[in-house]
Amino acid sequence: MERIFSAKVKLILALQDLRFTGDSYQDYRTGLVESVAAASKALPMENFAVREKRVYVEKYAQPESFSSLTEKDVRNLSEQIAPLIIFTDPDDKAKAFDAAMYLLMLSVINGAEKPAARAIKRTMTISSKLAKKGAAIPQILAQKELIEQVQTSTFWDGVSILEIENVRVNLRDLIKFLDDSGHKVYINLQDEILAVFEGGAVYDYETADEDYKNKVNQYVNKHKEHIAIYKLMNNIPLTQTDYSSLCYSPRIMSGV
């Protein structure tokens, strides 16, 4: 997810501030740097879209490039690298929770009270829902103390980003136990493509005629280096930028 990568980058920049000179904060910053650099290094250079950004990819694959991050670096990482990043974690709910927690950290750092209050309210609601399932699910029961704390306003008074990180780490894998709600986006690729986007199917591949299927497969084979096609072929979740690149391509939508 682009927003997770971009949020990590913004946190790396923010943690350069003198308010965060303590060892615990700098250890956390180092972990973020290693994560972002590793994600950049893992990008497949044989892919055309990645090769186009080679200068950026190679630069930010080195942890040393983050020693004194600038606003320009943040823009480069968010605009040039983030759309290419591949997340292999299959748990979409956990990733959504990660993104929410990282954005909450940024809101706390920047003193953005309204966004922070909304995020805290949602987190308290999630914790309340987890608490109602705790007796039946050992993984939730193991986090009983934290779940109970997160439901109280006292916990959030003057909360630090390290405390929020603790919530993220310990609760992210529990979100999957909550009931599904709202719309989802699914991408399922085996030998052929079936794409189901929020609001319904773009095309029902299973009922498509043979000619259309052949056209789609020809297009995919011809455009394997397109970053969105690459992700589809490797069953990797798409970013919003990827969706846009597919949805606004007349050739893809028409099957030509």
Secondary-structure class? mainly alpha
Kindly provide the radius of gyration, computed on alpha-carbon positions and rounded to a whole number of angstroms: 21 Å
Cα separation of the termini: 29 Å
The general outline is: globular
In terms of DSSP E residues, the strand content is under 5%
Order of helices and strands: HHHHHHHHHHHEEEHHHH
Helix content: 55-70%
Mean pLDDT reading:
81
Point out poorly predicted stretches.
181-212, 248-256
What's the total helix number? Answer: 15
> How would you sum up the major sheet?
3 strands, antiparallel
Strand order, sheet with most strands = 1-2-3
Number of strands: 3
Can you walk through the features of this model?
With about 260 residues, the chain is mainly α. It is about 60% helix and about 5% strand. The chain has 15 helices and 3 strands. It has a 3-stranded antiparallel beta sheet, with no helix packed on it. Helix 7 runs antiparallel to helix 9 (about 145-150). The protein is globular and about 55 Å long.
